[in-house]
Amino acid sequence: MISQSPVSPLAVDGTNGKLSEELVQRLLHVNKTTDNETVTLPVTHYQFLAWPDHGVPSSTALAPLYLLQYIRQTKKPIVVHCSAGVGRTGSVVAIEYVLESVLFNQRCEDLAEIVRDLRTQRACCVQTESQYFYVHWILLRFYTEHRYIAADDPRLVKFLADYEQATAKRP
């Protein structure tokens, strides 16, 4: 149980549930009390634990794909946010934009164009070069797992090796 913490006139309580080593799901209740009446709004909160600020997840982290799969199943409003709301948030939004295009058989723009468009709506979306390459990496992993791209394609193999080498140098 998450302890109740009043933020006048709101109070939040809920429970934690671990989906994986990288993902936590919290079922929250936001309670607003006015004039002796309490209105409760249920909120499902997902937290991805393994993505450092200004960085990228480890090369084994496919959790953003699983996270997007969970939230894609809901018809309720979705908010995606990291500490500043630009780097990791923009990366997740870019990933979902491309995945939705693929899953719904729609034409998808070049990723650079998608990021440019996101930046017209929110400055600094996909904040670092490594995040930009991570978006490519995770999409290529998705394409490989769903057999859109052959796992032994030499261009893919080279990109993955280059990505591993580049991200191994990060602090």
From TrEMBL:
Coiled coil residues, start to end: none
CDD domains (UniProt xref): PTPc
Domain Tyrosine specific protein phosphatases: from-to ranges: 65-133
Residue ranges of every copy of the Tyrosine-protein phosphatase domain listed in the record: 21-142
Annotated GO MF terms: protein tyrosine phosphatase activity
Source organism, top-level taxon: Eukaryota
InterPro entries: Oocyte-zygote_transition_reg, Prot-tyrosine_phosphatase-like, PTP_cat, Tyr_Pase_AS, Tyr_Pase_cat, Tyr_Pase_dom
Pfam annotation, one family: Y_phosphatase
Protein's name according to its UniProt entry: Tyrosine-protein phosphatase domain-containing protein
